[in-house]
Amino acid sequence: MIAQFENLSQKEEELMFSLPIYVSVLIAGADGEIDNNEIKKAVSLANLKKKKARKDLLEYYSHVYRDFEDKIKVTIANLPIDSKERESILIEDIKKANDVFEKIDKKFATKLYASLKDMAIHIAEASGGIFGYMSVGYEESRLIDLKMIKDPSK
Question: DSSP state, 4?
Fold first, then answer.
């Protein structure tokens, strides 16, 4: 357990550790199809963040990265194939983080929120544009701001 989550229930803690997975699957499936390049990018980002995230988030991402690829595959397998249903479920799960963000350190919550948004952008760019780089499609663009999460800095 990381210090910022000491006062959370086990369910709340699990939600916080699942956020990068939920965000990854939400963005990867935004266009109706979960592209293998987007999943590879999510796994790569999680690995990178466990090494080079903001200092306050290193321990968090170290925990998140454990079995990340397996967890993302299990999450996808347990969600509906229909993209609208899948999106709706993921958005509702991500929204639950709003209550938890209010219970943890504001500075940590703000950095985690920014990190999740950064992750969303990079995953969205993974399968668009020239040779899969530097372009975000409409479907992803409406979700990458993660508007379902209230900015914890405010």
Answer: G
